[in-house]
């Protein structure tokens, strides 16, 4: 009985955790991250120019 | 297409990295800085990533190392500079004896770092206890007990006790959903 309650409590907490997470996930990725990745890519391209 | 560059996959993990970082630091700006640092580290050390293993776990490991080393430097000052999550923590539970569920984030912020981290990895990010243990460099049993303690503490902070029914769930859920619409980073 006790453990049944705990399971319910656990589910309840995890649901809220995921909701907090999803909220951030749904914001999408700010452009600065994509810019950074492009910069890194660009850097590599330039550095990788061998003869 | 097995010879694709693993760096091309980094972008797929960004939303999850941000979610973890924000929950860990409770500060959007600090979290984004951390994620940027992690991206640069991952990019420049990509040869250390073993293709075929879990990239998300690898990235989260870098992310949490970044967090703990910057926290050591800056001391606890860094976390929650905006005070968004911890303000009014001293408030008493609502008149019905329950904290509002909108306070879930605040309650999360009150957990010890190790407990919050374990719960985020296992409860929200979907890692196994074993994966989380490896990422944190502790025993599986330690992750299990941290997660259990985190859940128990959250339940306590939210006024959910073992002897109570959870019929408040629906209202509480709604309040979290509506709170998420107004809150922003």
Please give a structural write-up.
Chain A: Pfam families: NepR. Chain A: This is Anti-sigma factor NepR domain-containing protein. The complex is a heterodimer of chains A (51) and B (185). Chain A has 51 residues and is an all-alpha fold. Chain A has helices at residues 2-26, 31-47. The longest helix of chain A has 25 residues, at 2-26. The mean pLDDT of chain A is 82. Chain B has 185 residues and is mostly helical. Helix content of chain B is 61%, strand content 0%. Chain A binds chain B through residues 2, 5-6, 8-10, 12-25, 27-30, 32-34, 36-37, 40, and chain B through 10-11, 14-16, 18-19, 22-23, 32, 35-36, 39-40, 43-44, 101, 104-105, 108, 119-120, 123-125, 151, 154-155, 160, 162-163, 166, 169, 173, 176-177, 180, 183, 185.
Percent strand of chain B equals under 5%
Low-confidence stretches of chain B: 80-99, 164-170, 177-185
What string gives the helices and strands of chain A in order? Answer: HH
- The domain count of chain B comes to 2
- Please count the helical segments of chain A: 2
**Helix coverage percent of chain A:** over 70%
Instruction: Describe the largest sheet of chain A.
Output: none
CATH superfamily of the largest domain in chain B: Winged helix-like DNA-binding domain superfamily/Winged helix DNA-binding domain
Tell me the overall shape of chain B.
globular
What percentage of the residues of chain A does DSSP assign to strands (E)? under 5%
CATH architecture of the largest domain in chain B: Orthogonal Bundle
Q: What integer value in Å does the Rg of chain A equal?
A: 22 Å
Distance between the termini of chain B: 38 Å
Structural class of chain A: mainly alpha
Q: What count of helical segments of chain B does DSSP give?
A: 8
- Describe the main β-sheet of chain B briefly: none
> Under CATH, the topology of the largest domain in chain B is which?
Arc Repressor Mutant, subunit A
Topology order of chain B in helix (H) and strand (E) letters: HHHHHHHH
Pfam families (chain A): NepR
InterPro entries (chain A): NepR
Protein name (chain A): Anti-sigma factor NepR domain-containing protein
Domain Anti-sigma factor NepR (chain A): 12-44
């Amino acid at each position: 009985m006790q453990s049944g309650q705990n399971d319910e409590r656990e589910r309840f907490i995890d649901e809220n955790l995921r909701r907090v997470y999803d909220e951030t996930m749904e914001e999408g990725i700010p452009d600065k991250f994509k810019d950074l990745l492009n910069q890194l890519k660009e850097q590599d391209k330039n550095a990788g120019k061998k003869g | 297409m097995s010879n694709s560059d693993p760096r091309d996959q980094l972008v797929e993990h960004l939303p999850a990295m941000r979610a973890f970082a924000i929950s860990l630091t409770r500060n959007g700006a600090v979290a984004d800085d951390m994620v940027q640092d992690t991206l640069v580290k991952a990019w420049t050390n990509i040869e250390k990533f073993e293709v075929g293993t879990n990239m998300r776990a690898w990235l989260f490991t870098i992310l949490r190392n970044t967090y703990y080393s910057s926290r050591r430097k800056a001391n606890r000052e860094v976390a929650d500079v905006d005070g968004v999550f911890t303000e009014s923590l001293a408030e008493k539970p609502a008149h019905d004896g329950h904290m509002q569920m909108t306070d879930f984030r605040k309650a999360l912020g009150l957990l010890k770092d190790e407990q919050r981290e374990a719960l985020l990895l296992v409860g929200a990010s979907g890692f196994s206890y074993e994966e989380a243990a490896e990422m944190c460099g502790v025993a599986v049993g330690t992750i299990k007990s941290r997660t259990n303690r985190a859940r128990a503490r959250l339940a306590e902070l939210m006024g959910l006790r073992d002897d109570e029914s959870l019929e408040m769930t629906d209202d509480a859920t709604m309040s979290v959903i509506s709170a998420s619409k107004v809150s922003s980073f």
